[in-house]
Design a protein that fits this description.
Length: about 280
């Protein structure tokens, strides 16, 4: 089936704009940081926000994190650089090696899935850099598929405390924590891929070699099967979650980690706890 490129692009932009307006994701004069991996979702987020920054009067900077995955991450970082260059957006780069002293590859086999330490350290570093830059919001490329997958993962692991992390806009729960926003909250992952191909955008399409070990990839396969048999299932699930749960900070008490001083809901944050295990094993 031939796709009308202009109509498709307009639909994608209108979908993100609807989320930005409906949930008031960005206020005038704010500095928004885009978490830019170089993958299709974060690149689309960058393009949409770059397009809107004049009209909505906010500033934009991108941040890329190199986790240290050989044969994978460098291409993503390169795509991030190319897109920032073409849009005239400043890119700040950080890496696990520089910040924590190891690459993700060094941790291979230490955890059930490499995604576990990857998520913990990346979230912390993204927030740290965004806060240092003075960001008011941290925009991520989370799409509709990601959101439902994350929700089901938390449900499967009985991590009810994580429910506050769902929704298109997170509350500011600590002065040093930059609230996250998700402009692609209602955008299907499949459509993001089509957008990148249709518009010839420089995007890193490869899958991370560690992704197959994650619970997310299993849930993703299941949801895709469901959607194929019953189109509209994913959107219905998102609507059900939104109605069933209030996306507020509620019971989350944030303080700072007693070791590193970064925001944490625990006395010692997950990153410091993992660092201790890692130091025992690899240093
Ligand atoms: Fe990190 Fe897992 Fe994503 Fe790979 S798939 S970049 S290990 S979170």
């Amino acid at each position: 089936m031939k796709i009308d490129g202009d109509a498709f692009n307009q639909r994608i932009i209108a979908g993100a704009r609807e989320v930005i307006d409906e949930y008031k994701l960005i206020d005038p004069n704010e500095l928004v940081v885009v978490a830019l991996s170089g993958g299709k979702d974060s690149v689309l987020t960058l393009h949409i926000l770059a397009d809107l920054m004049g009209e909505l009067e906010f500033d934009l900077v991108a941040v890329s994190i190199d986790e240290g995955v050989a044969g994978y991450r460098s291409e993503g970082v390169e795509a991030a650089r190319l897109n920032c260059e073409s849009l005239g957006i400043k890119l700040v780069e950080g890496s696990f090696k520089d910040e924590f002293g190891f690459k993700l590859d060094d941790l291979h086999g230490m955890y059930q899935s490499s995604c576990i330490p990857c998520g913990v350290f990346r979230r912390q570093l993204l927030n740290k850099i965004s806060h240092q830059l003075g960001a008011d919001k941290l925009a991520t490329g989370h799409n509709l598929d990601d959101e439902i997958q994350s929700f089901l993962m938390s449900l499967a692991k009985a991590e009810i405390r994580r429910f506050y992390k769902f929704g298109p806009k997170l509350d500011k729960i600590h002065p040093d924590m930059v609230p996250r926003i998700k402009p692609l909250w209602k955008t299907h992952e499949k459509d993001v891929g089509i957008w990148a191909v249709l518009n010839n955008i420089e995007v890193h399409f490869a899958e991370c070699p560690y992704s197959a070990t994650s619970l997310r990839s299993k849930i993703k396969g299941y949801l895709n099967q469901l959607e194929e048999k019953r189109p509209g299932t994913k959107l219905s699930m998102l609507k059900s979650f939104s109605k069933s749960f209030k996306f507020e900070k509620k019971d989350v008490q944030m303080g700072v980690c007693s070791l590193c001083g970064e925001p944490s809901s625990l006395d010692v944050c997950m990153a410091c706890e993992m660092m201790a295990e890692i130091n025992d094993r690899i240093k």
